[in-house]
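Task 17 of the worksheet. Students: predict the tertiary structure of the chain below and write it out as structure tokens. Keep your answer in the requested format; marks are given for formatting as well as content.
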Amino acid sequence: MTREQLLARVRVDSEICAGRPYIRGTRIYIAIVLDALMVGFTPEEIIDHYPCLDLDDIHAAVAYASQLAENNGGLAILSRNQHDTFPLR
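Model answer:
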């Protein structure tokens, strides 16, 4: 699947999910998928928990995050000093 096809799976609608990006046909936020990956869940474990998702939806969430980083010049907007650490839970 191409990047464009993956990104087409992501929707942003002010009337749905309070305007947060989500996987089309669901109300599952992109952030939920990314957070699950960040804490170590495998794509298969995420799909087991959210059976309405498939592997391409997981890839779409990552592609969306990648696109955001690219569009922002790779700079993350953080609320802490650049020398602070962000422990993972």
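Marker's comment: Helices lie at 3-7, 30-38, 43-49, 55-71. The first helix runs from residue 3 to 7.
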